[in-house]
């Protein structure tokens, strides 16, 4: 055969392996006694010189004979166990598994053979077609082509492939090329771990072999291997791709080595572009790796820290992290048309230098998009969305003064205009939520060419007239202060552009500016505060709303409130050394008044429900005062006369026709010469400026002038002593306060204070203080104590004495106050100024060098007053000139002046009062300790009293009479109309008290107090203490006082002791039977009584206490020298002895309605104070229940008997009631009463003609009282509807008069009239119907208690109001009287 012979050259590598004993033992039945076997691998060498990328064909696996192919391009030979068909190797076969494991060394053995293959072929004797000049690179390249690719081999040999490559990777060397010192290319063989696979030549050029070797000790794999060998085989052997972390490290290392890289140059920009290209290539190559995302993120973070970013218009390279809050952008597209201000903003954004992108586009165009994505991953912003520019650029710039201070004016102006045009105008409703942030950041150019941030403290910018704001603060012309106004550039620069083409556009822009808090008015902020419930308000400024809102709201709510910090800054001094600008306050006040209608909504806040607010229902459920309103009221900024500033609540604006206009000089009054206010609503409702002077205000000023009491101290004192009727004076008797004012002004002040019930009551309580003004010069005067003055000097002896500087002399004041009737009543009845001088005022005149006629006149007055005022001892103890005494005694044949006058006491039916003796026996030493420990009395006075108390006995009697005598001649006997209630006789050491008052605590306490001390202030303290002792004694007995005695730390001697009474029976005189028959009075007797003068006298007051009828009723006006009292007398009197009855004034029993009247020396001088000496007594009038008090609705007559079916209820203010004041009306001061005539009532008989018949008298008196009240109400309320329901006939209604007062919103009053002829009868009867009606009408039912007199000017009315409340508070008491049926 002539066919050519084809010879194939194979490289066969064999190895004989020993069979392990365990394998041999296990496979003895299969393999017999096999000790070893041979394994082999064979490679075809025919294509070794080809440079093709194709791989050799696959070969079968042999088990001495060929089996199937397992994907290998070489032959594996082994003694494999195969099935009968010999198609494949048996799996799960121990022998086959062992053979496969042993074959893993064959590839490594073959590698060594391939390394020496050129030498082997050269020494071979076979003829082959292979060129013997093959290179080592060709052999290693050919060897690597035999490696199976991924998924090429069958699974059975996977373990063989992996283990074989792993073994080979540790020994194989791969070729690399490098430049030597001579710049010659040489081939080195290195381990695969030092080899880097890079397919693209431009990468190799950017990152040279020298950079790899110097930085990473690595080489690029030889280009032939890269071109012909599979990259996966190289990677399996240990080669690696170019890692982006390596590139990052290279860039970072290069940057640190070359500081000049911070400077942006063309070469630096090109180098950065190349680095970015390499990075992008590396990232693309490794994107499929499992942990690629994490490694990429780490690399990106490292790159952000490097200054490798060139920016437009900047000479330095920057890092992305430097702009993490201010993003860098790609250059904007120049093909798009932008507005002028938007171009300015786009040019202002940090932008990548176009040189970088242009270089990449020119050199590596295919990589441009990929590198842009890389730059975006670094944080470069590609989008030019204006909202993102606002959030990421404009806001950050405006927040950083260092940055915005470097910007041009046009750019900063463009910021605001772009925000308005492209963000706010487009979607203003969506931008509302961001306005709050913008208001704190935005920059505004001002008129003085400065830019300010609205978020800066104390920066408030205002609009001007240029922007169409007619109410601009620009109208204020201030020399010391300038407001900050917005620059006109926003309007001037853009008014003719597309932004402000119409006036409406300017208006919309102004609305936008106002939402930024740039206003023509002051900056007022609207705040909304949410609350879950009303319980969250206590610690807020709206705590005062809790009572009202608690009833209205039971769910979450919102308080909308306006506040103005700018105003607060204007009117609040920055520190203690600063003052508020007076001119600014004047201008602001004038501005607010002028523009009040425009800004009035800022003064009101509102409360609304959260539920409705969420659905756009903003209807408020309650209006409140805003914080702005509270601010204008709380600060002192209102200019007043005198160039000072006051709080509005302290300022007055009195109209010229105001009755208090004369008081302008005393109060802070608005300076109308500098500011003229027109809006009454703003003046009074918002500012709260007062248009009237309150009585309390003048009272506070008056007490400051007179007693040097500031307002706080004054009211604290009043509160602390509210239980006392008289406030003890804490000032020394020598205190004298001067005042620069005229008597004319003080007259007005006294009259003003006297016209108000409250201030009149306060001054009455301060009557122990220096509150009487006495002029010294035309414009000055002094305030004196009340006891240093009296009203009038009848004989003008004292008025001529210059005693104003003498602390012991008293001054008449009537001449200073022009005998004004109002002031007369005020001084005499309220301040208790004595009407006439006393003996104490005249006694000092005896020591003054006087004319002899005046001296005898003084003696005459002293002699008279000594008897009237019980001042014998004062006369006896007064030291006068010796010659004068001798002349006087010789003239009157008097042995000793001290023995001139004596006091005699006469009593009836003496009996020991064990009750009083026991109490004072147990308590007198405690009373002494109280007085001495508080230094209220002197030790000398205490010693004198101890002598009296050691002999004191307590006696109850039926009557006490006093008389005064010289020797045995009685020169003065007290009126029988006034028997004493109590009297302490110092000479006999006896304490007398009427039997019927033996248990009247008030009387026996007052008597003891008046005997011990004289000072009124000390008396009030002692009264409280003795009452406390008595209460403990009554509740717990003598033991309670003994416990108090253990607390006494001092032992005062001599100690007060009262001997204990020995109880013994004393027979009482026989009682005198009272006649029950009504007296028969003839017509002649009645006519005779009519002609007799009235015995009515002014009553002498007693000390008002809590127990003894303390509820003294006072009102203004009252008649001079009259005292109104609520004292209730005993309803029954004990029978008196016959001789006692005969001594009584016969006129006292002439009429059942007449009552006793007290008579004392105090009356003659108008003195309303308590006892002056120890021998003074407490007087009370014994009265019977007025028979006229029977209710006219319940008086019934029947045949043969008088029947009262219902026990009448009576209002009673007994001695145990607490104090209460009711209005008192005195007809002596009413102008419509003609006091010269007696009252005449049409259609009614006169009072005198009706007295004999009780029932007719009651009805007539009651009707006269109704007529009197009806006439008074018609005079007082001329425009009211007043209906006298009983005018024609008795109506039977529970009231007598019905009145509707139209001027007070048609307020109704129901008035029941109760009339009596007893001037101090305070007990009255009411029907069950009246009780029911007053309970149903607690606020508008009144009882007018008429104290009727034949002369109307002597009549008075007490108005008993709020009866139900006073009953509940125990100021009034209901009592019930039961009367049995009586025979005719």
Automatic annotation (TrEMBL):
Residues 1063-1186 are annotated as: Disordered. Residues 1265-1351 form the Protein NO VEIN C-terminal domain. Residues 1063-1094, 1129-1145, 1155-1186 have a biased composition (Basic and acidic residues). This is Protein NO VEIN C-terminal domain-containing protein. It comes from Rotaria sordida.
């Amino acid at each position: 055969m002539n066919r050519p012979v084809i010879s194939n050259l194979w490289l066969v590598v064999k190895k004989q392996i020993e069979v392990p004993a365990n394998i041999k033992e296990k496979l003895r039945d299969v393999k017999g006694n096999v000790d070893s076997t041979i394994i082999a691998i064979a490679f075809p060498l025919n294509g070794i010189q080809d440079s093709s990328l194709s791989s050799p064909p696959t070969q079968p696996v042999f088990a001495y004979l060929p089996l199937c192919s397992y994907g290998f391009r070489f032959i594996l030979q082994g003694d494999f166990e195969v099935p009968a068909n010999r198609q494949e190797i048996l799996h799960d076969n121990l022998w086959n598994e062992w053979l496969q494991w042993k074959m893993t060394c064959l590839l490594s053995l073959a590698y060594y053979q391939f390394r020496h293959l050129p030498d082997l072929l050269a020494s071979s004797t076979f003829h082959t077609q292979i060129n013997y000049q093959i290179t080592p690179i060709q052999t290693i390249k050919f060897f690597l082509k035999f490696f199976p690719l991924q998924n090429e081999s069958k699974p059975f040999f996977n373990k063989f492939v992996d283990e074989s490559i792993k073994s080979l990777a540790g020994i194989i060397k791969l070729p690399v090329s490098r430049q030597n010192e001579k710049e010659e290319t040489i081939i080195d063989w290195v381990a695969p771990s030092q080899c880097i696979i890079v397919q693209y030549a431009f990468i190799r050029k950017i990152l040279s072999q020298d950079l790899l070797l110097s930085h990473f000790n690595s080489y690029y794999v030889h280009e032939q291997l890269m071109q012909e060998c599979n990259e996966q085989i190289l990677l399996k052997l240990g080669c690696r791709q170019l890692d982006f972390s390596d590139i990052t490290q290279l860039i970072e290392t290069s940057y640190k080595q070359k500081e000049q890289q911070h400077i942006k140059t063309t070469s630096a920009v090109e180098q950065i572009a190349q680095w970015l290209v390499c990075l992008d290539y590396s990232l693309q190559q490794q994107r499929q790796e499992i942990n690629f995302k994490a490694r990429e993120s780490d690399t990106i973070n490292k790159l952000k820290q490097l200054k490798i970013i060139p920016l437009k218009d900047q000479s330095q390279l920057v890092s992305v992290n430097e702009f993490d809050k201010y993003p860098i952008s790609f250059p904007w597209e120049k093909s798009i048309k932008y507005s002028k201000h938007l171009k300015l903003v786009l040019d202002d954004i940090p932008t990548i230098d176009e040189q970088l992108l242009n270089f990449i586009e020119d050199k590596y165009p295919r990589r441009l998009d990929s590198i842009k994505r890389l730059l975006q991953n670094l944080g470069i912003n590609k989008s030019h969305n204006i909202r993102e520019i606002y959030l990421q650029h404009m806001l950050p710039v405006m927040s950083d003064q260092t940055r915005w201070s470097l910007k041009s004016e046009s750019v900063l102006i463009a910021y605001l205009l772009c925000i308005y045009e492209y963000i706010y105008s487009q979607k203003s409703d969506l931008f509302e939520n961001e306005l709050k942030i913008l208001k704190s950041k935005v920059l505004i150019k001002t008129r003085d060419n400065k830019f300010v941030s609205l978020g800066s403290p104390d920066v408030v910018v205002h609009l001007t007239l240029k922007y169409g704001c007619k109410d601009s603060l620009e109208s204020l012309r201030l020399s010391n202060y300038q407001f900050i106004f917005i620059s006109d550039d926003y309007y001037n620069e853009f008014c003719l552009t597309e932004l402000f083409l119409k006036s409406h556009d300017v208006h919309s822009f102004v609305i936008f500016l106002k939402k930024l808090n740039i206003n023509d008015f002051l900056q007022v902020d609207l705040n909304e505060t949410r609350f879950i419930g009303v319980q969250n308000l206590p610690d807020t400024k709206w705590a005062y709303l809790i009572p009202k809102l608690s009833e209205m709201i039971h769910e979450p709510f919102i308080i909308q409130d306006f506040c103005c910090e700018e105003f607060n800054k204007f009117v609040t001094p920055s520190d203690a050394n600063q003052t508020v600008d007076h001119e600014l306050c004047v201008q602001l006040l004038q501005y607010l008044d002028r523009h009040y209608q425009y800004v009035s909504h800022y003064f009101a806040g509102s409360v609304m429900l959260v539920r409705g607010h969420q659905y756009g229902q903003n209807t408020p459920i309650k209006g409140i005062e805003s914080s702005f309103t509270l601010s204008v009221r709380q600060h002192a900024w209102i200019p007043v006369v005198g160039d000072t500033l006051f709080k509005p609540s302290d300022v007055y604006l009195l109209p010229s026709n105001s009755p208090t206009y004369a008081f302008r000089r005393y109060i802070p009054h608005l300076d109308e010469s500098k500011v003229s206010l027109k809006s009454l609503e703003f003046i009074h409702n918002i500012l709260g400026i007062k248009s009237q002077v309150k009585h309390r205000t003048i009272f506070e000023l008056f007490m400051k002038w007179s007693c040097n009491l500031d307002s706080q101290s004054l009211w604290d004192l009043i509160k602390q002593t509210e239980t006392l009727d008289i406030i003890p004076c804490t000032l020394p008797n020598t205190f004298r306060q001067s005042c620069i004012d005229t008597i004319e002004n003080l007259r007005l002040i006294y009259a003003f204070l006297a016209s108000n019930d409250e201030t009149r009551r306060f001054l009455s309580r301060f009557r122990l203080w220096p509150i009487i003004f006495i002029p010294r010069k035309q414009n000055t005067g002094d305030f004196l104590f009340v006891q240093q003055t009296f009203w009038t000097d009848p004989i003008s002896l004292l008025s001529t004495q210059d005693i104003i500087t003498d602390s012991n002399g008293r001054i008449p004041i009537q001449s200073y106050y022009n005998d004004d009737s109002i002031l007369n009543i005020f001084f005499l009845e309220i301040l208790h100024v004595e009407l006439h001088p006393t003996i104490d005022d005249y006694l000092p005149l005896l020591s003054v060098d006087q004319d002899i006629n005046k001296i005898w006149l003084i003696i005459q007055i002293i002699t008279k007053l000594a008897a009237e005022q019980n001042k014998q001892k004062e006369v006896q103890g007064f030291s006068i000139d010796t010659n004068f005494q001798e002349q006087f005694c010789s003239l009157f044949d008097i042995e000793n002046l001290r023995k001139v006058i004596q006091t005699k006491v006469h009593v009836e039916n003496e009996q020991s009062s064990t009750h009083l003796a026991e109490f004072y026996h147990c308590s007198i030493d405690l009373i002494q300790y109280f007085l001495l420990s508080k230094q209220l009395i002197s030790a000398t006075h205490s010693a004198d009293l101890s002598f009296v108390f050691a002999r004191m006995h307590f006696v109850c009697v039926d009557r006490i009479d006093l008389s005064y005598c010289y020797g045995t001649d009685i020169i003065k006997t007290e009126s029988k109309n006034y028997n004493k209630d109590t009297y302490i006789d110092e000479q006999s050491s006896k304490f007398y008290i009427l039997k019927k008052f033996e248990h009247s605590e008030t009387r026996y306490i007052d008597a003891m107090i008046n005997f011990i001390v004289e000072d009124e202030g000390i008396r009030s303290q002692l009264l409280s203490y003795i009452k406390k002792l008595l209460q403990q004694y009554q509740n717990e007995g003598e033991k309670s006082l003994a416990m108090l005695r253990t607390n006494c730390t001092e032992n005062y001697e001599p100690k007060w002791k009262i001997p204990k009474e020995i109880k013994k029976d004393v027979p009482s005189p026989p009682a005198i039977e009272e006649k029950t028959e009504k007296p028969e009075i003839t017509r002649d007797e009645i006519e005779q009584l009519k002609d007799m003068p009235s015995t009515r006298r002014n009553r002498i007051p007693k000390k008002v206490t809590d127990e003894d009828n303390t509820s003294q009723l006072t009102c203004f006006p009252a008649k001079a020298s009259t005292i109104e009292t609520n004292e209730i007398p005993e309803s029954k009197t004990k029978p008196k002895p016959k001789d006692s009855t005969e001594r009584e004034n016969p006129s006292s029993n002439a009429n059942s309605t007449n009552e006793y009247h007290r008579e004392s020396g105090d009356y003659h001088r108008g003195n309303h104070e308590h006892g002056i000496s120890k021998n003074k007594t407490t007087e009370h009038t014994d009265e019977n229940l007025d028979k006229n008090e029977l209710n006219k609705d319940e008086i019934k007559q029947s045949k043969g008997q008088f029947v009262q079916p219902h026990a009448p209820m009576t209002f009673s203010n007994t001695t145990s009631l607490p104090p209460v004041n009711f209005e008192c009306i005195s007809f002596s001061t009413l102008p419509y009463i003609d006091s010269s005539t007696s009252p005449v009532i049409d259609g009614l008989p006169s009072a005198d003609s009706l007295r004999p018949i009780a029932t007719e008298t009651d009805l007539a008196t009651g009707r006269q009282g109704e007529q009197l009240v009806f006439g008074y109400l018609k005079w007082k309320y001329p425009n009211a509807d007043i209906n006298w329901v009983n005018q024609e006939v008795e109506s039977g209604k529970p009231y007598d008069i019905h009145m509707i007062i139209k001027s007070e919103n048609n307020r109704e009053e129901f008035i029941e009239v109760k009339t009596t002829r007893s001037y101090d009868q305070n007990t009255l009867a009411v029907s069950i119907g009246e009780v029911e009606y007053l309970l149903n009408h607690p606020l508008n039912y009144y009882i007018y208690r008429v104290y009727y007199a034949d002369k109307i000017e002597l009549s008075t009315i007490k108005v008993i109001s709020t009866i139900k409340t006073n009953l509940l508070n125990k100021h009034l008491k209901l009592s019930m009287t039961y009367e049995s049926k009586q025979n005719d």
